[in-house]
Amino acid sequence: MSNLSIQLDEILHCGAADRLYSGASAAVFTPQDQLIFSYVGTHAYADGRGVSATSLFDLASVSKAFVATTILSLIEEGTLDPEQRVAEILQVGTGDGAEGITLHHLLTHTAGLPGDVFVWKEPGLSLEERWVKALAVPLHSRPDSIFHYACIGYIAAGRIAELVTGKSLVDLVTERIIRPLELSRTQFGPVSREIAVATEVESFI
User: Fold this and answer.
1) Positive or negative CA dihedral for 31, 35, 40, 43?
2) Rounded Cα distance, 64 and 87, in Å
3) Which of 133, 81, 138 has its CA nearest to residue 107?
4) How far is the CA of 73 from the CAs of 68, 79, 162, in angstroms?
5) Global confidence as pTM
6) Burial of 142 by CB count in 10 Å (0-12 exposed, 13-18 middle, 19+ buried)?
7) pLDDT score of 174
8) What is the CA radius of gyration of the chain?
9) Which pLDDT tens digit goes with each residue over 75-95?
10) 50-54, 60-64, 125-129: which range is least confident on average?
11) Where are the alpha helices (DSSP H) in the chain?
12) Burial letters for 66-100: b for 16+ Cβ neighbours within 10 Å, e otherwise?
């Protein structure tokens, strides 16, 4: 085992010992064209299965880059217009200025939407009810007035892409990014519990 491999293992083990995560995976590509991997811990604190080369990790907000790139490809081909008011396709947000929100606003976090919308935590709602409630959220500020990081903006942008193409966002991302780049270990959307590593501890589940 190389010194770099040992150091990588030690770093990941320290994080697991401090309970920063139940398990972790890392890879380093060296100037000598060596690819070094390290796997530490388990899929979850209550799940004894060890992290391995087949484990999949949630990319969380990194997925916004996949959504943005997919939408930019639709803009490039003329299917979407970044300056079009999205209310013509899908009503996003409520309150003063909501009718003026554009796709550009959604992608640049300047739509005035709030940072957190936790509709997904509410039990007993159908998918359609969650969509309606999430998209009817009151604006935090007027569009194009301030930068305010908002996940719901990207969720709405992805939904707009679905509506104009008639395809699911999973299919769009797969067709336009994952497959062309040959990302064989990348998936967009829910994955099997057998290979998924827990993202965070959620007491409400």
Assistant:
1) positive
2) 21
3) 81
4) 9, 9, 13
5) 0.85
6) middle
7) 96
8) 20
9) 999 999 999 999 999 999 999
10) 125-129
11) 3-17, 63-76, 103-107, 127-135, 151-165, 169-173
12) bbbebbebbbeeeebeeeebbeebbebbeeebbee
Q: Dump pLDDT digits (tens) for 130-170.
A: 889 999 999 999 999 999 999 999 999 999 999 999 999 99
**From the CB of residue 106, how many other CB atoms can be counted at a distance below 10 Å?**
28
Integer CA distances (angstroms), 56 to 53, 187, 199, in order: 8, 9, 10
For the chain, the straight-line distance linking the first and the last C-alpha, in angstroms and rounded, comes to: 41
DSSP classification of residue 97: T
Distance, CA of 169 to CA of 152 (rounded, Å): 15
For 33, the token pair is 């064209």
Tell me how far apart the 2 most distant CA atoms of the chain are, in Å. 61
C-alpha to C-alpha distance for 200 and 18, rounded to whole angstroms? 15
Is residue 62 packed enough to be buried (19+ CB in 10 Å), middle (13-18) or exposed (0-12)?
Answer: exposed
Measured over the CA atoms of residue 201, residue 203, residue 204 and residue 205, the dihedral's sign is positive
Is 101 exposed, middle or buried, given 0-12, 13-18 or 19+ CB atoms closer than 10 A?
Answer: buried
Instruction: Give the burial string for 8-26 (b: 16+ CB within 10 Å, else e).
Output: bbeebeebbeeeebbbbbe
